[in-house]
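OP here, attaching both records as promised.
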Amino acid sequence: MSCRPAPAGPRILVAALDWGLGHATRCIPIVHRLLSRGATVLLAGSGASGGVLREAFPNLSYHELPGHEIRYARSAGGLMWKILQQLPRLARTTKAERRWLARFVQQQGIDAVISDNRYGLHHPGLATVFITHQLGIRTPLGSVGNNLLRRYHYRLIGRFGACWVPDGPAPGLSGLLGHPGPLPTVPTRYIGPLSRFQKAEAATLFDLAVVLSGPEPQRGIWEAQLLQQLTNFPGKVLLVRGQPRDKTSVTSGNLTRVGHLPAAELQAALAGAALVLARCGYSTVMDLAALGKRSILVPTPGQTEQEYLARHLTESGFACCLPQKDFSLQQALATAGRFSYHLPTASGHQHLDEAIDELLARLEVNREA
């Protein structure tokens, strides 16, 4: 009797947007779970976020996507105008993504795509999943403008087969961003917060860990604003500059500056910090929730999503959130010392596991048909 080899697992492309690093970092637990279930995972990205995926999974096949290369304004008031100026280029990049995927499907013979905010990675012959935490759109345009944008956003999501939202039940970590009321017409699942980190007991290594992130020029502006204040800070400080290509580490007095830390080292550093100072990006919020860390969060000026999150997380007691304008580290630490923190209990990845199992079961049915 001849023994037939076991059928290979499904081939799944996981792709992340390149606006900051968070879209890539939150794909990491998804990739781990796909691999543990026997799937063949191919990665795609661009820029620094693509580097995060390559670093996390050096043995997986990685493919370069068209880059978005979004630029933020130097001032909060100019951010919306800056993004509006870039919309034609973003639309061209989305079309380039569609062409890229059409060629990729022919060359690689994949079965499914999981796209974190890459709007062009849908295909009529594949199972496709779109990941976003921002179903509700927050802009300075008011409720009418936000509702119109949400409807347009849902049209884009409707080109995919399903939508996964990395949050738990309402209000969750994302508040009205992830729980706006009306949902997209495609099947939409809440898969729980996504983080590459796990909570662990650790001795205190730093009095303060500062993690910079996000697109330029705001990342650099925020770094320059903080540096002088950090050099005068009496405790031990770690500054992670959010520059994946920068492997340097410099210690001067109580301040240690590093360009980037691999995931395991960053987890250890944050776990060993008495307090974390960071941007109010949603992926950062999910990482802090997983680690159970007290934090001071500062939204990127003019980025309405982060400004809304700051209000929501302050009201819920998750984080002490303060504006960047006239930021004083001394005053922020005093405010955080009086803040009543209420950190959520880590929920695990049960909902993510269920969503992945459902996707793989559907792929199995498709392959047998």
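Record two, same layout:
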Amino acid sequence: MKSQICWYLPHPFNQKILHLRLSPQDPWQPYTSFPEYCLPDYEIKAGSKGYHTMQVLLAQGWELVPSNFGTSLSDYWPLEA
């Protein structure tokens, strides 16, 4: 199975950030939880968090999953209070 990426808006954040999972059975986690894949963000005001990482992972064959597949809080790890 391919590793997957998704743009997800977890509470309490006000901006979608890139989330990753290594297999479809894994919970979504912010890209910053994967230091082996996380790349520095571009220095663009109001730029998307994880855009640089997404570009590289797509080039490596990761699957981009539509955002509506990553919107359930039960898919998000860890849940924040």
